[in-house]
User: Which sequence fits this backbone?
């Protein structure tokens, strides 16, 4: 399995966390969050970036009518709040813990800039990560605006295949062991849980996928599904 946020098979957490660097180790701590705790809100000062040591974090924002839009759900080893690196001073999104034992590594923007200034390869990886993440987000927002729920689900399953899928030699199927609940998936594709259940069962009945709570099996290439 390969996570989308790994570069050259290096987990960002193992590369960036300040406790890995002698200069910053003594002053570094981890922050703990429970389920539904907010790490930051929209309009908060953007003076830190964050790495997930363990747990799961939702990134989102609210429309003018108060509707919540989920931009991403992140897991262990992933980075968020990265716009602060680019000089953005206020948050335009919220970050919320989805687990009862979420552990976050906060990194001050000045510390991050020092690390980037002292290591050109490190700096390149950060900018590559930011560009890749923006590109992925743009693609997801296009799907939310212009595609129907079934198409959004199929695109998301293809994305999961790339991030978390591996081949089962016995059956030839793609097996996806992913960290998302059905509620997470519904939020990410912009639909309700009942609608997601209907769509998943339609794909199951058509022998395109099989699934349980912990994994999804791709039985047929989804790009051929009309």
Assistant:
């Amino acid at each position: 399995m390969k996570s989308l946020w790994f570069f050259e098979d290096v987990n960002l957490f193992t590369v960036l966390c300040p406790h890995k660097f002698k200069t910053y180790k003594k002053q570094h701590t981890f922050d703990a969050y429970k389920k539904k705790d907010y790490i930051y809100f929209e309009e908060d000062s953007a003076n830190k970036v964050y790495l997930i040591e363990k747990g799961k974090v939702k990134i989102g924002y609210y429309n003018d009518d108060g509707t919540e839009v989920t931009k991403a759900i992140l897991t262990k080893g992933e980075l968020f709040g990265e716009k602060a690196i680019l000089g953005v001073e206020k948050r335009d999104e919220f970050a919320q813990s989805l687990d009862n034992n979420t552990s976050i590594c906060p990194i001050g923007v000045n510390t991050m800039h020092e690390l980037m200034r002292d290591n050109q390869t490190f700096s390149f990886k950060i900018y590559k990560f930011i560009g890749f993440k923006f590109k992925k987000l743009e693609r997801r927002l296009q799907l939310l605006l212009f595609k129907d729920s079934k198409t959004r689900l199929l695109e998301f399953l293809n994305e999961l295949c790339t991030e978390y899928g591996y081949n089962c030699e016995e059956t030839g199927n793609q097996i996806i062991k992913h960290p998302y609940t059905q509620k997470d998936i519904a939020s990410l594709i912009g639909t309700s849980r009942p609608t997601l259940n209907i769509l998943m069962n339609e794909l199951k009945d058509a022998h395109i996928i099989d699934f349980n709570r912990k994994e999804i099996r791709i039985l047929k290439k989804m790009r051929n599904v009309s």
Notes: Helices lie at 12-16, 22-25, 109-118, 120-146, 149-164, 182-189, 193-205. The longest strand covers residues 48-54. The chain has a mean pLDDT of 81. The two ends are 28 Å apart (CA to CA).
